[in-house]
Amino acid sequence: MELTREKIFKALRKLPNVNPRDLDALIQDHRDKAPGLAKTLIKQGIISEQDLLVLLVRELRIPSIDLTKYRLDEQLKKIVSEKVARKYEIVPLSSLGETLTVAISDPLNVFAVDDVSNITNKTIEVVLASHSQILKTLDQFYASAAPTIAQVTANMPQVNLEIIQGHPEEINVDAEAGDQPPIIRMVNLIIKEAIRQRASDIHMEPSADGMRVRYRIDGILQDILTVPAESQNAVTVRIKIMSRLDIASFQLPQDGRFKMRTASGEIDFRISLLPTTYGQKIVMRVLDKANLSIGLGKLGFSKHSVDILEGMIYKPFGMILVTGPTGSGKSTTLYSIVSKLNTPDRNIITIEDPVEYLVDGLTQIEARHDIGLNFALGLRAIMRQSPDIVMVGEIRDAETADITIKASLTGQLVLSTLHTNDAAGAVTRLVDMGLEPFLVASSLLLVCAQRLCRRICPFCKHPVDIPLQAFKKIQHKIKPGTVFYEGKGCQHCRNTGYSGRLGITEILVIDDEVRDLLIRGKSSDEISSYAQEKQGMQLLFDDCIGKMCEGETTLEEVYRISSFEEN
Asked: Burial level of 322, CB count in 10 A (0-12/13-18/19+)?
């Protein structure tokens, strides 16, 4: 086995874009726990799932199988239970005499093979399949063990759920209605499926015919199912109970949160309820803390952007701003930076509205406007707590901006967000809010404008030609011979052609020349022009074009998230 592992490691070191030192460190970390190595290699972007499968087949000479085209025998469930199959992430394929053939994605996991052999009392033969195919096949094969939402809804005893008596203001709610087992199963299944499909939000919108459930996947809302009208109010009550909200209040907006433990760790859910004509609309934001510790490089940023950011976040004082519209990943970027800086020797305090991620080691304050605890008041209190790093959720007014700027000049590193369209616009926006130009110039270190574009699904990715008219506009930014790609649409991406998202950035470093331009009252356009010419700053459009040329996104996404500018 040791020889086999070394053979794999040797092949991995030969891959392009692999840093041998990083790979060796990763291998050393997994020296005594090889079962997690394959997942880690994929998660950290060292190799794609498909490329790893090809490498394993080539080096180990183990056959691979496409599980989407394989029909499984129901009798195999008697040999390998769902609990065993999911624990070891194997798919039973056939049983002949004393030999059981299974599909596995990590052949280095000898412990799984040995345990399954002992449990089934059979000799195990393995074939290779991708990890995503194995998980999807397990969901389909063992579906009878976990009823679908449609099945739960069909069997639901309606007599216990008939609680709507008229208009929302006339509803008389029984708390126990939300605790009925069918409702609990329904809500849990909606949440579980959202996590499995990597949804960032769950939208539940009441109507006359029922409650429409949609997931926001890769920034785009997709219809999932409809909860029957007679059940929708009980579902709302159940979610309120989970979030510890007032179940009797239906006329005012409410905000709450809860936490769930999954196989991959704890996930926070932030809940917002809004009264509408037919009941309360619910939006659940899925906040997976695992996304915060993967590092800036794994957020999809280009290496150039990561190098600039990492060169600034270790400054002892000053201010770093991340700008962009709602849903552009600003908070995730800030939390990723804070997580990287979160060490025992630093006092890190955040003030947010609301607190999105609960992170160990941070002092986190939630703004409470109903009692007067706004960003400005909270910041004043924070400054008396001897912080090393301060994170402000958003600069919304001149008072908050003034205190934030002064904090960055008195020995603290300050991180915050601002709503502007581009990086240079953030600099002049602070001046427009009433701050003195010399204070802004002295405090700012860097401004990062950010967007998120969808990544092409690796399972249905194929080369395409782009329209000639569009190509003529961007051909001066593209190397000759560049191949463009898009996704056809498959079961892995719900026929969208996209899977996952990439960070698109425009980073303005505040150097002496930018400070001089700002103090002299120059416009954001002039500052942007200087940064492009002298700093080599890439506009959002340019960075997105670069991602398209690398085969990671499409022209459609380029125009969806950025605007074309001649430069």
From this structure: buried
pTM of the model: 0.63
Q: What is the residue-wise DSSP string for 475-539? A: GGGS-TT--EEEE---GGGTTSSEEEEEEEEEEEE--HHHHHHHHTT--HHHHHHHIIIII-PPP
Q: Which residue has the tokens 């600099």?
A: 427
How far apart (Å, rounded) are the C-alpha atoms in residues 423 and 482?
Answer: 29
Runs of H (alpha helix) within 142-266: 149-154, 181-196, 229-243
Cα 419 to chain center, whole Å? 21
First to last CA, the chain: 57
CA-nearest of 37, 178, 181 to 110 is: 37
Reduced to 3 states (helix: H, G, I; strand: E, B; else coil), residue 295 is coil
Which of the four pLDDT bands, split at 50, 70 and 90, describes residue 2? very low
**CA 328 → CA 298, 339, 501, distances in Å?**
16, 19, 10
Q: Are 557 and 496 in contact (CB under 8 A)?
A: no
Residue 563: CB atoms within 10 A of its CB come to 11
107 in helix, strand or coil?
coil
Indicate if the pLDDT at residue 373 is higher than 80: yes
The residue with tokens 């794994």 is 298
The Cα angle at residue 131 between residues 127 and 132, in degrees rounded to 5: 130
What distance separates the 2 farthest-apart alpha carbons in the chain?
85
- Name the token pair of 294: 């993967």
Q: What is the pLDDT of residues 107-145, one digit of tens each?
A: 767 778 888 888 888 888 888 888 888 888 888 888 644
**What pLDDT, on the 0 to 100 scale, is given for residue 178?**
52
Q: What are φ and ψ of residue 263, in 5° steps?
A: -65, -30
Size (the chain), residues? 567
- The amino acid that residue 226 corresponds to is T
Q: Which two tokens stand for residue 509?
A: 């470093």
Residue 404 has pLDDT above 60, yes or no: yes
Edge to edge, what strands does the sheet with 99-104 contain? 90-96, 99-104, 123-128
Is 546 within 8 Å of 553 (Cβ atoms)? no
Please say if the pLDDT value at position 91 is more than 70: yes
Residue 257 three-state SS:
strand
- Cβ proximity of 399 and 369 under 8 Å: no
- What average pLDDT does the segment 480-505 reach? 87
CA atoms within 13 A on the CB side of 40: 17
Label residue 563 by pLDDT band (50, 70, 90): low
Residues 436-463 have a mean pLDDT of 92
300-303 LR contacts (CB < 8 Å, sep 24+): 300/452, 300/455, 300/501, 300/502, 300/503, 300/504, 300/547, 300/552, 301/503, 301/505, 302/505, 302/538, 302/543, 302/546, 302/547
Helices in 89-180 by DSSP H: which ranges?
Answer: 110-120, 131-141, 149-154
268: enclosing H helix or E strand: strand 265-276
How many beta carbons lie within 10 A of that of residue 92, not counting itself?
24
**Range in 260-274, 384-398, 421-435 the model is least confident about:** 260-274
